[in-house]
Write a structure and sequence with these properties.
Number of strands: 10
Strand content: over 45%
Structural class: mainly beta
Number of helices: 0
Order of helices and strands: EEEEEEEEEE
Low-confidence stretches: none
Mean pLDDT: 97
Radius of gyration: 12 Å
Strand order of the largest sheet: 1-2-3-10-5-8
Amino acid sequence: MFKTNSYFDKKVLSIAFDSNEGKATVGVMAPGEYTFGTTSKEYMTVVSGEMEVQLPGESTWKTYKPYEMFEVEANQSFNVKVSVDSAYKCIYK
């Protein structure tokens, strides 16, 4: 069944489900700056809008647009800046 989650005063909302790729979430982010932590490897794909991302150990930020994906290893944290409402899909391995 589906499980809903909200973070950062409901500025980030997600729905968790089991996909044919494994555990997954789809969600939306309102404009803002966020730091996320991982417990497993994550494959994050931007669905709409765009996300500026600072990956673990990096000093620079990279902008990801629809259909672009980035990976974050388990037990890491990464930063995201969103300037417009944006949607994503995340697969957990």
